[in-house]
Amino acid sequence: MSQAPIRFGMVGSGWRSEFFARLARALPGRLEVSGVVTRSAARAAQVEAGWGVPAFRSIGELRGTRPEFVIASVPWQITPEVVRDLVEQRVPILAETPPAPDAEGLRALWAAVGGVTRPGGGGLVQVAEQYTLMPGHAARIALVREGVIGRPTSVQVSSTHMYHAMSLIRHTLGVGFEPTTVTAQAFIAPLADPLSPRGWSDDLTPRDATTTLAFLDFGEARTGLYDFTDNQWWNPLRARRIVVRGSLGEIVDDTVVRMADPRTPVESPLVRRRTGTDLNLEGSEVHHISFDGQVVWRNDHLGASLSEDDLAVVDLLCRTGAWVRDSGPEPYPLADGCQDHLLALAVEESARTHAPVTTALEAWATR
Question: Looking at the whole model, is its pTM more than 0.85?
Answer without folding.
Answer: yes
